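Hi V.,

You were right to ask for the full record rather than a summary. Here it is.
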Amino acid sequence: MVEKEHQTYSESKYRDVLWFADAPPGDVVYFEKSIGEYAMEGRILYNQAHEEPWVLSIHGARADFTKSDAVTFGLQRRGYSLLGMNLSGHSRAGVLKPEQTTLGNNVREVEAFYQLLDGNRKKVVVAYSLGGTPALKLLENHSDNIAKLILFYPGIYTRDAYDKHFGEEFRTSITKPFSYRNTDTIDLLRRFRGDLLLIKGQYDGLDPKEYGKPEGGAVGEVEIGGNKYYSPIPKDVIDMVYEEVPDSQFQLIEIPKCGHSVVLWMRDHPAEAELLLDKIEDFLDT
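Predicted structure:
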């Protein structure tokens, strides 16, 4: 479908500025998708049968579609075709500078790429950190067609932040105490009838009271056992996700001695990463 509608090419136009330059384990094509007055690059990782993608991968802040290669490459090896895209404002591959774009634009970008997935099968959506909000917003119009949702340490924000330009304006909006309670995504998750897998590091989503930080926010950087960890997701956000999904639809995987970025931990722990990918595959196959 994508190859018929968009000109494809074999190397990313942004390969010199991407997080990682590892070669995918299978066939790959790149293409550009117009989003109004600008275009964003997408990447398809095909399985051996060269099936159209039905898995959508959504990166987080300060990232591009290669940052989660530890997951996407692993799923490609396991027989999945995946579509990823660069989101505006988060890297040089994201075309627009942070001050030129918003989380609301990211939501629209993800929606545009979602439309390119195989229309004849149920979808899987995998999202990381800030990408959790565009992923959950897909449930507004596509809940019945999304069978599985995998959220790595999801970012859930106040609806007031959607139109704030990235940088200080956005940061001020989302760091107000308990601002995330003004979200419009948890209601969408509450009505979701598919299955959710939540993956987080042991030292993300920490309780701020236990670390001398104000309630209603995240702990940030913290030293535990002589090691520094980054915990930008408020504990309340993780609890909100726990509370809104029935046990029959919900699975949790917590990575020991890991902070926020599980995908970078996976690169440093390849054997453990394969075990995690096995668990993800089990979730997708049930």
